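Task: complex structure prediction.
Instruction: return structure tokens for all chains below.
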Amino acid sequence: MLEVEHLTKRFGTLTAVDDLSFTTRPGRVTGFLGPNGSGKTTTLRMALGLTTPTSGRATFDGVPYQRLKNPTRLVGAALEASAFHPGRTAKDHVRMLADGAKIGKARCDQVLEMVGLAAAADRRVGGFSMGMRARLGLAAAMLGDPQVLLLDEPANGLDPEGIVWMRDLLRALADDGKSVLVSSHLLAEVQQSVDDVVIIAHGRLVHTSTLAGLAREHENRTEVIAADPGAWGRLVAEQGWTVQPGEPSAGPPSAGQQAMVVVGPTAAQIGRTAFAAGVELHQLATQRSGLEATFLALTEGQGTIR
Amino acid sequence: MIATLRMEFRKYFTTRTWWALLLITFVWTGLNVATMVLAIHFGRSEMTAEQGFFLPSGDAVARLIYSMGTTFGYVFPAIVGAMSVAGEYRHQTITPTLLTDPARWRVLAAKFLSVVPLSALYAVTVVVGCLVFGSALLAALGEPTALGDVKTWEMFARMILAMTLWGLVGVGLGALLTNQMVAIVTLLGITMFLEPTLRSLPMLIGRDIPALAYLPGALGDAVTGATLFSMFGPGGTGAGLLGFLPATALLLLYAVVLTAAGYLLRFRRDIP
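Output:
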């Protein structure tokens, strides 16, 4: 289990990670989310002892990474996809790490098999695609059958089929009782595989909950254009809906019509109610997916690359 | 430590660099030694004291030629040593290495220790190059090969020691610079340009500069017990060099101090 406590990293005047605390739980996949440049990778590198925190600490079952006796056995990490020597074969890369962690050859073949690289094991990494490198990074991370997995943007470079495969793998690892942390700048990319979310922006924690908790927090926003503003206004008052003036995405409405955004009910509920009341609608459109909108609202204006 | 050492050895021997560099070491030292054989054989009559040359005679000539192996070859084990650290930064494999063993002092110590047999391998290759190109050519030209003299074999052993120490100096330089390109250019600059230039100064100004004996290349020559520069020095004895033991100790000290400085100043830093 990874515990991050008040982790802070400053590079000169820039605060990359700011008093960040969160934990991962066994048997669950945690999505570590935030825009590019929000401090996800810096946090992971601090947790793994590659970067020294300015203050705070990260521990695995209570022990900082640098103090772990044989870290490969407890923690598996896959960071940037390019940390391979291009002239070394996939098998040799894994075997080199296995030597350092006192792990035998059989396990090396096994993890390469698990990530689908058995046939490419004797090829040099220099000729690998991004997706193959991502798979090799995962093989290395799983080498010691660790209880904690930290995966930085693992879906990067994977094709759609690979992403589905990755999703199933994360699920299987969590079902096996491991705690899995997956970073991503896209909620949609991990939405289907995570149980918990830790959302950061500008190095600060902005939200942490279960995925269901995040879903509860989001509001439905539906664009509506009504043919008869008067009838529509009566319906809104009758239903007690919250409406805001809206800029319809499908261009300006015709004369006499009114574009509104209804906050709260789903498009289906609005449509059904309007139909029952005989109110003519010319547009009924959900603004973004609810979760994505919530995620963007939480990290709003903070996605600039610094 | 044993696991970390095993990881280092697997690292060296799973890319093609090690044998490509071994081949270059063999050919480069061999060709240079062969050139020396030809130059001395055909140019001996002109290499007189009046011309500023101090050639020894008999077996000593052969030994002087073999000792050139160190002069031309010591840069290779040094490059191997430097790459064992800086190469990991170059390809970012330092990240998986430190994830496997996060104790940085142990990783650097494993590199230092593993480079001993590795640079010895390159040193032996240099000696084999001297034998294959040098002795064979000397014999073919009817010159003495000095292979029957135990002093020659003793010198081969000292050459291997000198070049192995140079491999360790390379580790220190690699740890201190961490940039592979900068490390290799620095090594080539020092060994191929800076040292030869400085050590030619006494010839130009006509008197000895004792401080030059402490240059790393001069120490290597002192460990070997012979030097190309003795050809140009008074008496042809390699005057001005330190003794074998102090030179060995000092060269090892250079390697240890450079590596320790690399650890304290660079290797403990955040990994980029």
